[in-house]
């Protein structure tokens, strides 16, 4: 049952990594392609022709929006006021997570969930929106809604506040100021490129400003929860492997501990085949009883661990009992139990009857091992020598018990290491590619004035400006470039390979996703053209690789100054490093009040990805489950080991061993086995954890994860496992010590 619980959590974790996004996308009938038109160059007839293109299954109908200013909380921000239909549309519905839908003839707004993450906006709050002519109107927030086709990094549109068409018309009566957009649901979701080409032909290459591809939105949304993908994926793989090994070693150990009983069965006439089928039927029945119990327990625990994935996507969590998961868990548990039981039972069934009854699964060694001889020379008490000798009397049985204990240790190491690593990434945002303390954006102030104000701010130690540029390689691959104006040296940028770019040089540092996508390495040259300057290619030397937090890691950071002659830029975003000990609230007050009211300040703690926050609960829950199952495994292994020694205990008591000495002997064997298992399990667990991390991060384009280890916890784990192993042997040891000699020998 415990193994079934662990396997249920493992498979449910792996199944839910991308499931919430995909499920929400289908349930909401989200558009596969959004088209954003240049107002005045596209007619309603053009839109109608696009809606009836081959391969288009359905459309959202023409949607209207206006980019405006709004005050959310105490901060001003640009927002997209988007009109949505009064009735739920057939294509691209919104997932309402809080509150209620918009009511007709009510001036209110439905906010995209991103505003909750960035500005702590909640249902019932109020936002102040600038209307045409400069006036302001206050809109109550009716609720929060999630749209799978809007993503912070992949979308070019400003985050949305949804309103009714009547409200939009009241705020902006001139419909010529409205932007047009159209969402298309395709028959073949993979035919976005072909549909886009058909749209371009329909519009004769004019009128399409930009578009949004559902594949890029999905990729970016999942990259946004890459910490979940890496850590929960590693847990799922480890737990699946551990489950199989735990079942195999436990069942094998139990069958081998019953070697004498098998000898008795053969003595009374059971054939080897009958012995085999007896044990197969016995353990199949146990798996059919214990499997569903563990499955129910695992399903009950899974929401605690898995709610973080859809929550960090903004998609909400709706637990579901999937038949495929039930069949997979029960099938794996039953198959593993049968294979393990078959191997051990077949070995026992083939054994000689007299040997099986006389010595069990393994004959005692005739020569004392070297370690035991050394212990004898040291003059250790006979009770401790007997406990040590028990480990060598049946080495294969001791090995199986040690494997069980080591698996428990590895589970604990995995949980502790993952938790420490998540804590470090939470405390050091630079590991996630967030190497700054605050971000300042401007709207109407000039670049020079903003730089002067930042240089005069007492809390600011260093800053640089950034402009986003679109570039395309000769192979047609298009991506964004961070063109920075300033020096990155004062900032704690984590360079995983190579070095930082030098100010003013035609050098670049790249995200791991970009290098993998383009097949490049640090030291290579990259040639591309800037958007609008296709006849003037530029070449950068890639001098380093860093953890890029945006756009699936497919971004390049370069110097802006050498590009000014090709792309006149006017940066409006500034990244700040604050002086140690400075008060961030004073910085916000000085830059956002009075004559400086045009500037917006966002502190870095407000920009740490939600996946790191939500992941904490998941790691705690999963680590607790791993540790709990590991401790149960330790206890069971010790219990099996003692059970097999009951006959020997009877003999020892015959020659004068006291009950206290019996308990000490049993505890010595268990404690030493726990010590060896901990010493072996800790480094193996660390290697396995690191290997799984490297495997997963390579597949997600995240870059290398710095696995963090708490040496104190691991050091305490060695004596702790020894004590737990001894505790596991205490009850059966006391039972054996308290039994009468006649009863013990007769029961054997």
Structure description:
With 748 residues, the protein is α+β, with helices and mostly antiparallel strands. The chain folds into three domains: 39-206, no CATH class; 224-428 and 611-747, no CATH class; 435-607, no CATH class. It is built from 24 helices and 21 strands. The strands form two sheets. A six-stranded mixed beta barrel has the order 3-4-9-6-8-7. A six-stranded mixed β-barrel has the order 13-14-19-16-18-17. Strand 3 (63-72) and strand 4 form a beta hairpin. Helix 22 (659-700) packs antiparallel against helix 23 (711-738). It is elongated.
Strand % is 15-25%
Rough shape? elongated
Number of β-strand runs? 21
**Number of DSSP helical runs:** 24
How many discrete structural domains?
3
Radius of gyration (Å): 33 Å
Structural class: alpha+beta
Strand order of the largest sheet: 3-4-9-6-8-7
Major sheet attributes: 6 strands, mixed, barrel
| End-to-end separation | 29 Å
Helical content stands at 40-55%
**Low-pLDDT residue spans:** none
Chain-averaged pLDDT: 81
């Amino acid at each position: 049952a415990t193994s079934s619980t662990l396997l249920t959590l493992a498979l449910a974790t792996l199944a839910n990594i991308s499931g919430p996004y995909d499920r929400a996308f289908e349930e909401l009938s989200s558009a596969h392609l959004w088209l954003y038109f240049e107002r005045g160059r596209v007619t309603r007839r053009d839109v109608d022709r696009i809606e009836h293109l081959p391969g288009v299954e359905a459309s959202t109908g023409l949607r209207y929006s206006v980019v405006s200013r709004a005050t959310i909380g105490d901060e001003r921000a640009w927002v997209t006021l988007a009109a949505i239909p009064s009735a739920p549309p057939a294509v691209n519905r919104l997932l309402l997570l809080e509150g209620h839908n918009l009511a007709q003839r009510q001036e209110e707004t439905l906010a995209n969930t991103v505003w909750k993450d960035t500005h702590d906006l909640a249902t019932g709050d109020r936002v102040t929106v600038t209307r045409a002519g400069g006036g302001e109107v206050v809109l109550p927030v009716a609720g929060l809604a999630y749209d799978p086709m809007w993503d912070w990094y992949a979308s070019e549109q400003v985050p949305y506040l949804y309103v009714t068409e009547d409200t939009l018309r009241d705020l902006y009566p001139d419909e010529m100021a409205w932007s047009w957009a159209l969402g298309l649901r395709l028959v073949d979701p993979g035919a976005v490129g072909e549909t886009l080409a058909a749209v371009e032909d329909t519009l004769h290459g004019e009128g399409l400003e930009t578009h949004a591809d559902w594949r890029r939105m999905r990729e970016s949304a999942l990259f946004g929860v890459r910490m979940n993908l890496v850590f929960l994926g590693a847990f799922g793989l480890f737990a699946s492997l551990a489950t199989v090994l735990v079942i195999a070693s436990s069942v094998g150990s139990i069958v081998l501990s019953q070697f004498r009983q098998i000898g008795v069965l053969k003595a009374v006439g059971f054939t080897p085949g009958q012995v085999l089928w007896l044990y197969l039927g016995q353990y199949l029945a146990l798996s059919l009883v214990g499997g569903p119990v563990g499955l129910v327990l695992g399903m009950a625990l899974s929401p605690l661990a898995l709610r973080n994935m859809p929550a960090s996507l903004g998609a909400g969590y709706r637990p579901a009992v999937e038949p495929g998961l039930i069949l997979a868990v029960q099938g794996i548990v039953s198959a593993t139990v049968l294979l393990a039981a078959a191997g051990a039972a077949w070995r026992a069934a083939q054994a000689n009857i007299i040997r099986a009854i006389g010595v069990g699964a393994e004959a005692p060694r005739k020569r004392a091992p070297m370690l035991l001889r050394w212990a004898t020379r040291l003059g250790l008490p006979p009770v401790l020598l007997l406990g040590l000798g028990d480990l060598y009397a049946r080495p294969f049985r001791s090995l199986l018990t040690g494997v069980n204990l080591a698996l428990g240790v590895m589970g604990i190491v995995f949980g502790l290491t993952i938790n420490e690593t998540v804590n470090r990434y939470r405390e050091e945002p630079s590991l996630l590619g967030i190497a700054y303390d605050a971000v300042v954006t401007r709207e109407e102030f000039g670049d020079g004035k903003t730089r002067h104000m930042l240089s005069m701010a007492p809390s600011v130690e260093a800053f640089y400006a950034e402009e986003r540029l679109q570039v395309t390689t000769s192979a047609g691959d298009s991506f964004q470039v961070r063109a920075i104006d300033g020096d990155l040296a004062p900032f704690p940028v984590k360079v995983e390979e190579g070095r930082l770019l030098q100010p003013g040089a035609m050098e670049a540092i790249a995200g791991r996703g970009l290098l993998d996508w383009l097949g490049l390495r640090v030291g290579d040259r990259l040639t591309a053209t800037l958007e609008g300057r296709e006849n003037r290619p530029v070449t950068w030397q890639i001098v380093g690789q860093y953890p890029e937090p945006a756009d699936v890691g497919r971004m390049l950071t370069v110097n802006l100054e050498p590009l000014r002659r090709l792309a006149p830029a006017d940066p409006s975003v500034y990244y700040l490093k604050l002086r140690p000990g400075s008060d961030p609230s004073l910085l916000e007050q000085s830059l956002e009040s009075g004559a400086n009211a045009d500037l917006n300040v966002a502190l870095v703690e407000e920009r740490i990805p939600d996946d790191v926050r939500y992941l904490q609960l998941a790691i705690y829950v999963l680590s607790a489950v791993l540790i709990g199952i590991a401790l149960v495994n330790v206890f069971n292994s010790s219990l099996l080991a003692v059970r097999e020694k009951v006959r020997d205990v009877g003999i020892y008591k015959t020659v004068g061993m006291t009950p206290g000495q019996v308990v000490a002997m049993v505890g010595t064997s268990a404690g030493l086995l726990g010590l060896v298992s901990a010493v072996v399990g800790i480094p193996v667990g660390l290697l396995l954890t690191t290997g799984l991390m490297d495997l997963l991060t390579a597949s997600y384009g995240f870059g290398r994860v710095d696995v963090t280890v708490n040496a104190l916890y691991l050091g305490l784990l060695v004596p702790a496992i020894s004590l737990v192993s001894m505790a596991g042997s205490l009850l059966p040891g006391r039972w054996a010590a308290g039994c009468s000699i006649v009863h013990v020998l007769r029961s054997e």
